[in-house]
Amino acid sequence: DIQMTQSPSSLSASIGDRVTITCQASQDISNYLNWYQQKPGKAPKLLIYGATNLETGVPSRFSGSGSGTDFTFTINSLQPEDIATYYCQEYDNLRTFGPGTKVHI
Amino acid sequence: QVQLVESGGGLVKPGGSLRLSCAASGFTFSDYYMNWVRQAPGKGLEWLAYISSSSSYTNYADSVKGRVTISRDNAKHSLYLQMHSLRAEDTAVYYCARVLVGTLGAFDMWGQGTMVTVSS
User: Fold this and answer.
1) What's chain B's Rg over C-alpha atoms?
2) A100 at the B interface (CB within 8 A)?
């Protein structure tokens, strides 16, 4: 099965900062990679699908890139409401999630 | 209202069984692949199972294979997860999630979750 890793596991940033999270798959998953945001006590929210596609209604400060085994998720100009945990997820094989990256101020 | 609502969680003893339900409304349920995902307290997301729109295809995570069965009733707009031989490590919030049309694995709608606690 495919294993997903994320780095960092947590990060501290300031409002207005650019935040970058990386996700690595243990084997080539093409562009079958999603990114989710989860706030405490809430269900996850889809932000990016197919590695680079912004889900409808998601602010354009969120973006994704990469293919194969290495992927990047970026928040341009971090906003207070972006404080959350972010997960990558592959859907080339099963639907494995990465361990998550907690973003805090 | 477009939504997914899980039910059926609760306290169950180790070795017990439980059936979770997910009621869909506001969209054509029969058009969508569906999934179950869980999250243990303070932990990350763990995908459990998916089922195709017509129930032709299912797949399971190794961690639950043989102990859980995903099913659906399109006429009742409902998704189910039957769980057996429950263990303490199955304690989690269980979410149902809809797959975005045009993808096979992007979950664009989630329920609010139902809590399952396995304890004696």
Assistant:
1) 13
2) yes
Q: What is the pLDDT along chain A (105 residues), one digit of tens a residue?
A: 899 999 999 999 999 999 999 999 999 999 999 999 999 999 999 999 999 999 999 999 999 999 999 999 999 999 999 999 999 999 998 899 999 999 998
Q: How many CB atoms lie within 10 A of CB A9?
A: 13
Determine which of A3, A39, A52, A95 to mutate to test the interface with B (most B C-beta atoms within 10 Å): A95
Residue B110 and residue B120: Cα distance in Å, rounded? Answer: 30
The whole-angstrom separation of Cα A6 and Cα B104 is 22
Residue B90 backbone dihedrals phi, psi, to 5 degrees:
-85, -5
Q: Write down the residue that tokens 């990469």 correspond to.
A: A66
CA triplet A8, A14, A20: central angle to 5 degrees?
35
Report pLDDT digits (tens) over B71-120. 999 999 999 999 999 999 999 999 999 999 989 899 999 999 999 999 99
Q: How far apart are CA B40 and CA A27, in angstroms?
A: 26
> Other C-beta atoms within 10 Å of A3: how many?
12
Q: Do A95 and B108 touch (CB under 8 A)?
A: no
The C-alpha atoms of residue A63 and residue B109 are separated, in whole angstroms, by 20
> CB contact, 8 Å: B47 with chain A?
yes
Q: Which residue carries 């990114």 as its tokens?
A: A35
Element (H, E) at B21: strand B18-25
